[in-house]
Specification:
With 464 residues, the protein is an alpha+beta fold. Helices cover 37% and strands 20% of the residues. It has two domains: 20-359, BirA Bifunctional Protein, domain 2 (2-Layer Sandwich), CATH 3.30.930.10; 370-463, 3-Layer(aba) Sandwich (Rossmann fold), CATH 3.40.50.800. The chain has an eight-stranded mixed sheet with strand order 1-5-6-15-14-11-7-10. Helix 6 packs antiparallel against helix 7 (206-214).
């Protein structure tokens, strides 16, 4: 093949290979998360990667003229189909399609990949794994949302985070909705206002960035321009004053709009129920949380780390929420014509993984195999007998797959695989019914041990 025809290996921006210790830790996190979801009484659901575009819509795009700009959509003959961008919209479609067979209160969890056509960086990917729990049906909202907060705290602690390393921030979208009503902000501007407020705690924004988005436009460091909501100075100023309030009592005294008061009351009821559980101190109010997805209409939650993580350049940055969600009462009504309330949370597994790899607080069992070296091809059957014996005793094991390679190259391979033990047997061992064990992590010159074959399993277990 000519040089110009050679392919250059690489990935598109926002996509990532995972392997070795990173993938092992991810699989462990997934197992812990799923077990905890089941412990809390949620049932599993799996939906396809693609949905009919009009069924799930797109609640991500900030460009009103191109509502599908932040998703991956394709023409499929008569219909357009879209790679799912979250797990809540497919849940709404599934529930509407199958509600007659489901219990009146449907608690489901889903752990699958989602896809977003957006800017990547700092643990933000265009394909990533979400672990969702949702409760659909007529329930006491305070109980359901408190259960989700308890679930988030419990799951993150099971995954290896300490209580002082994360905070579950809650709010209620009705609080801001009442403020918007008081300010007489036109309907077509309301989504932009909500999204501007939601960006307050995002990296690179703050009050100044939100003010720019509330007014004409915001230009980021790259020069990209995001059109603002075009509010008046007075409207923007009132919203910025609201964003400075941190105390629920102060909010209640200063904002009397009925919708705002309803949102405050729902938060108070949430904290009453939380007080019955073990994670009350993990949950704090943050009235700036309204969630970027437009289908949320009540309770909102974002779980943030209390420390910064390193980005790929080694700089410490805020990577954003590792678990978020909220309440949606109208998402399913698009299918059923009646409001069926739902509420849910979503753990960003790959973002959590990004952090846990840096913290090194969760033990990673690499489970690298014992390697059976092949010293002489005529004893191949004997080597396979040893291999089978190891595997029957639940010891990960492999046999070196090229009998023509010398022992040095076989051990070089074993070291690169980070194997802890090599089994080395030649004519003497087989004649005397012995095996030689090499401790690859041991002190050189003292790491070989010849033992009776009958003691193989016990001796290997001491070293792995």
């Amino acid at each position: 093949m000519s040089e110009k025809n050679k392919l250059i290996p690489g990935l598109p921006s926002g996509f990532e290979d995972r392997w070795n210790k990173t993938l092992i830790l991810k699989k462990r996190l997934l197992k812990v998360i799923e077990n905890n979801f089941i412990k809390y009484g949620f049932d599993p659901l799996e939906t396809p990667s693609f949905e009919i575009s009009e069924n799930i819509g797109s609640f991500l795009a900030e460009d009103d003229s191109n509502p599908m700009s932040d998703v991956f959509s394709f023409n499929d003959g008569e219909k357009n189909i879209t790679l799912r961008y979250d797990l809540s919209s497919p849940l709404a479609r599934f529930f509407a399609q199958n509600n007659q067979e489901l219990p009146s209160i449907y608690k489901r969890y889903a752990i699958q990949n989602v896809f977003r056509n957006e800017k990547s960086g700092n643990a933000r990917y265009r394909e990533f794994t979400q672990a969702d729990c949702d409760i659909v049906g007529n329930v006491n909202p305070a109980q359901a949302n408190a259960e989700l907060c308890n679930l988030v705290a419990s799951t993150l602690i099971e995954c290896g985070l300490k209580k002082d390393q994360f905070t579950i921030n809650v709010s209620n979208r009705k609080i801001v909705q009442g403020l918007i009503e008081d300010l007489k902000i036109e309907k077509e501007k309301q989504v932009k206002v909500m999204r501007a407020i939601d960006k307050l705690d995002k990296p690179g924004f703050g009050l100044k960035g939100v003010e720019e988005l509330l007014k004409k436009e915001r230009k980021d460091k790259s020069g990209a321009i995001t059109k603002g909501a075009n509010l008046s100075d007075g409207q923007a100023s009132r919203i910025l004053s609201f964003l400075r309030i941190k105390d629920l009592k102060e909010l209640k005294e200063n904002f009397k709009n009925p919708i705002t008061q309803e949102g405050i009351k729902e938060l108070e009821e949430l904290f009453e129920v939380l007080n019955f559980g073990n994670y009350y101190d993990q949950v704090k109010t943050n009235f700036t949380i309204v969630r970027g997805l437009d289908y949320y209409d009540g309770f909102c939650v974002e779980t943030n780390l209390n420390f910064k993580a390193k980005n790929i350049k080694g700089k410490r940055v805020d990577i954003g929420s590792i678990c978020s969600g909220g309440q949606y009462n109208k998402l399913i009504s698009r299918f059923k014509g009646i409001d069926i309330p739902g509420t849910g949370v979503s753990i960003g597994v790959d973002r959590l993984l990004y952090v846990m790899m840096q913290l090194n607080q969760m033990e990673i069992d690499t489970q690298n195999p014992v390697i059976v070296c092949v010293m002489d091809e005529k004893y191949l059957k004997n080597y396979y007998d040893i291999l089978d014996n190891l595997r029957k005793n639940n010891i990960n094991a492999e046999i070196f797959l090229d009998s023509k390679k010398n022992l040095g190259k076989q051990l070089t391979y074993a070291n690169k695989r980070e194997c802890s033990v090599a089994i080395i047997c030649g004519e003497n061992e087989f004649n005397e019914n012995n095996v030689t064990i090499k401790n690859l992590k041991g002190v050189k010159g003292e790491n070989n041990k010849t033992i009776p074959k009958a003691n193989l399993i016990d001796e290997v277990k001491k070293l792995i």
